[in-house]
Structure formats: C-alpha cells, structure tokens
C-alpha cells in the first residue's frame, strides 16, 4: 500500500481524498496557496506545504512547486483530484520520472483521451459508437463546408483540446458556418493555446449519459452503470442522478460491456468516465475523462463502493476489489452542485461564510469544505458544496432532497441553492423527460415571464 499521498488539489475533493487515505491508514500531505492557508483540507491533512500565491498558475498548476512539495514531505504518490492538473499528461509523466506514483492512468492514456479527435478515432476502432462527423481536425473553412454537406445541419464545431463548453459553437445552417468556424478557432486558441477544431452532427434533444469504469492496468475492468448528467447550463453540469430514468436494463448492460471491452483492450488503469449523448435509443461517444468526476458520489451511493479507495488500491498494485457480477444497483441517488454564485446571472459570489449548517439524516451526504467563518476565495472554481441524496427509489430520493435543501444554511454569500427548488418542482424533472437543453430553456422562459 502507498505510504504517503500528496493531494494536488483543494476544497471538497481534497477533503474527500484525505478521508479515503485515512481509512486505508495512508498519511496525507495537503498543498495550498496563500489564499487557502485556513482551508479545511489543510487542517485535516497530516502535513501541509504552501506552494505559492493565490493565482492557480503560480500554485496549483505549478508542476515544479508540486514536485518540490513531494520532495519536502517525502510523499511517494500524488492524487490530482479533478480539475487543475488531473488530465495533464506532462504532470503524470514528470511524477513518473521522479519515481512518484501518479494516482490515475498512464500519461499515454491521459494524452490519448485528452485530444478529442484522437479519442474519437481510438474509440471507433475499439467498437464504441461515435457521433457522425469529421475524421479529424478541420484545417480550413473549405473542408468544414465539405463535412457540413456530408453530415447535414444542425452541426457543432468543437475545440479538439476543449472542455467546459469553450471553443464550442452550434451551427444551424450554412450561412452561419463560416463565422462559427472562425469564432470556435479563436476561442479555442484563447482558452487552450490550441486552435484546432473538429465537426460533429448536432443531436437534437439528447441525454448526456456517462458510464463509470475502473481498470487495473492489466486488462481487467468493470463498469458501474451510468449517471444522467443532462441538467446543464452553458455545458456545465448542475444536477446529476444515477441510474438514468431512460435506460432499460438491457441497454445499460450492452453499453457497459462495450465500455469495459474498450478499456480492457487499452489496459487502462484506474477510474474513468466514458461520456455519451443518447438520442433515439442510440449512444454516441463524445469524450472520456481520465480522472475521478465531480459527480462520482452518486455512483458510490448506489453501489456502496468508495471509488477513491479503489483508485488508491489500484495504484498500490492491488487487484480490483470486485467482479462485474458482484455489482448490483441499489436504489437511486441525486447530486446537486451548489456554487458560490448569484442567481439569475450566475456570477461569482466569493466572501465570508457567516453561518453554515449541513443537513443530515438517513440517505443525506454533504461533500464540502465549508465552515462558519471561512472565506470563499475569488480565484478558483465556484463549487463549494455537493449535496448527495440516496433513497430506495427515485421518488424517495427526490423527497429527501427537498427536505435536505430546506435544512441547508449557507449565509454570508449568494449560492445557487434556489435553482434546485425550481428544478425539483418541474414536471419534466419529476417524470425524467428532461434533456441537455431543458434547463437552459426553462431559465429562458422564466426570464421572459419576469419581463412581462
């Protein structure tokens, strides 16, 4: 087993990793910027090392600083969490070069799946269904026009190195293709330092379904069913649930087997998520995330498995703790992402937490690093709390979620808590008929009503 793990992250995911390490009797090292000196993950770790000023580029993204922290603390492994350097192949390789275990897949697999075009080609070759589109990067507008004629409108232009909705443009007709193509390239260059884009068919009203997988790096793998992440705003997930309301057991089994077959052939190591758009009873691969996901707790709740502990065990060369036949879905789980943001504009709302009270009771879980008196800094992602609910069935999970939301108190800053009360009362959510455009449309409708 690993001896000492440095957590190259902050906030709730850093706390989540520290707890899993403690359960396995692994020592922990927290890194932090000067803005996070009083953060909860720093308090709970066995050791802490300050690695720089508030700006992420000078601290949490500074690879030399993190390597130095490993050397100072004697950490023999690094867990990247999600965000920051969690999908940076250079980081994984540098750690390997320094004989430090990277808790995640190989640098090769991170790089392979980090480029959307290469990832799509790889998955196609492994038998995973993909969205119709260009065979690779689109070099110029003339080539974009040829692809558009072939696959038809609507289509979407995407950044090859993209994520989080950046460098992504919807094109409804030929007249807007050129401006969208140029705009996507410009946005991709600004966001990722890479202006390469590709084109895919735009699927109308799809669901966003992702499959959780785990591999041991030796060709053995399992899947832990799916999560429905269709409730989004500006391509950012707001609420997730597991299992999906729309998949049959046969569909769940079939797509799970396809994903397991693919990562087994890749000899993938660690956890990962294969993401699909689901439309008209068909799955279309969009990307693979080679890290733990923000929404991993709902999978943990329906399977009773600690995914972070599995990461730690696999990185310690332990075999998988279970076989596919051991994995049975129990009940239903929902996660709400609560951000430090003002509604309705969703603008950042950093500041001091005056009062914090977490809800409790059976089936209620809070993943958060908040405490009364904590100052939410303005430098990082606005996610401050994840409210995770488990019930024997979806109806019970929704009822518990409504109760938990009424108990949650976060005073001193604005949060997105109120948006979940809107979502939970809507008939489309209640019957599970929502898609990836549903929340955006709902919010637009409410804006129009208020104006009138």
* Order of strands, widest sheet: 13-12-9-10-11-14-21-19
The SS-based structural class is alpha+beta
Helix count from the secondary structure assignment:
15
Binned, the helix content reads 25-40%
CATH homologous superfamily classification of the largest domain: ATP-grasp fold, B domain
The Cα radius of gyration reads: 22 Å
Count of DSSP strands: 22
Q: Quickly count the domains.
A: 3
In terms of DSSP E residues, the strand content is: 25-35%
CATH topology-level name of the largest domain: D-amino Acid Aminotransferase, Chain A, domain 1
Main sheet overview: 8 strands, antiparallel
Average pLDDT, rounded to a whole number, is: 95
CATH architecture title of the largest domain: 2-Layer Sandwich
CATH C-level category of the largest domain: Alpha Beta
Low-confidence runs of at least 5 consecutive residues: none
Short description:
This protein has 452 residues and is of the alpha+beta class. The protein has 15 helices and 22 strands.
Describe this structure in words.
With 452 residues, this protein is an alpha+beta fold. It has three domains: 92 residues, Rossmann fold, CATH 3.40.50; 70 residues, 2-Layer Sandwich (Dna Ligase, domain 1); 245 residues, 2-Layer Sandwich (D-amino Acid Aminotransferase, Chain A, domain 1). Helix content is 35%, strand content 28%. The chain contains 15 helices and 22 strands. The strands form six sheets. Strands 13-12-9-10-11-14-21-19 form an eight-stranded antiparallel beta sheet, with helices on both faces. A five-stranded parallel beta sheet has the order 3-2-1-4-5. It has a three-stranded antiparallel beta sheet with strand order 7-6-8. β9 and β10 form a beta hairpin. α4 packs antiparallel against α5. The protein is globular. The mean pLDDT is 95.
């Amino acid at each position: 087993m690993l001896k000492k793990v440095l957590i190259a992250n902050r906030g709730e995911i850093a706390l989540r990793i520290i707890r899993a390490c403690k359960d396995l009797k692994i020592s922990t090292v927290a890194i932090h910027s000067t803005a996070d000196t009083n953060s909860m993950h720093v308090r709970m770790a066995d050791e802490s090392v300050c690695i720089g000023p508030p700006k992420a580029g000078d601290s949490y993204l500074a690879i030399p600083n993190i390597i130095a922290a490993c050397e100072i603390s004697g950490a023999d492994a690094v867990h990247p969490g999600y965000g920051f350097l969690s999908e940076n192949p250079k980081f994984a390789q540098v750690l390997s070069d320094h004989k430090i275990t990277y808790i995640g897949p190989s640098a090769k697999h991170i790089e392979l799946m980090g480029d959307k075009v290469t990832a799509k080609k790889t998955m196609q070759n492994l038998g995973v269904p993909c969205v119709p589109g260009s065979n690779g990067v689109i070099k110029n507008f003339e080539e974009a026009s040829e692809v558009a004629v072939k696959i038809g409108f609507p289509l979407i232009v995407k950044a090859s190195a993209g994520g989080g909705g950046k460098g992504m443009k919807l094109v409804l007709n030929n007249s807007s293709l050129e401006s969208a193509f140029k705009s996507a390239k410009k946005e991709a260059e600004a966001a990722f330092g890479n202006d390469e884009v590709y084109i895919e068919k735009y699927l109308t009203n799809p669901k966003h379904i992702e499959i959780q997988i785990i591999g041991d790096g030796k060709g053995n793998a399992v899947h832990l069913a799916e999560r429905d992440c269709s409730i989004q705003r500006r391509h950012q997930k707001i609420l997730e649930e597991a299992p999906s309301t729309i998949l049959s057991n046969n569909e769940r089994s079939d797509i799970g087997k396809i994903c397991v077959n693919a990562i087994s052939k890749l000899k993938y190591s660690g956890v990962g998520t294969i993401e699909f758009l689901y439309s008209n009873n068909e799955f279309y691969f969009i990307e693979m995330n080679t890290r733990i996901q923000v929404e991993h707790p709902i999978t943990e709740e329906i399977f009773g498995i600690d995914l972070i502990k599995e990461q730690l065990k696999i990185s310690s060369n332990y075999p998988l703790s279970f076989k596919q036949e051991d994995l049975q879905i129990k009940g239903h789980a929902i996660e709400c992402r609560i951000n430090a943001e003002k509604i309705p504009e969703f603008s950042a709302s950093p500041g001091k937490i005056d009062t914090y009270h977490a809800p409790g009771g059976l089936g209620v879980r809070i993943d958060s690093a908040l405490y009364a008196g904590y100052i939410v800094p303005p430098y990082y992602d606005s996610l401050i709390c994840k409210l995770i609910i488990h019930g024997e069935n979806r109806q019970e999970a929704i009822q518990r979620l409504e109760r938990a939301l009424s108990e949650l108190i976060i005073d001193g800053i604005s949060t997105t808590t109120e948006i979940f009360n809107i979502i939970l009362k809507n008939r489309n959510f209640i019957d599970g008929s929502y898609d990836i455009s549903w929340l955006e449309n709902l919010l637009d409708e409410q804006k129009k009503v208020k104006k009138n």
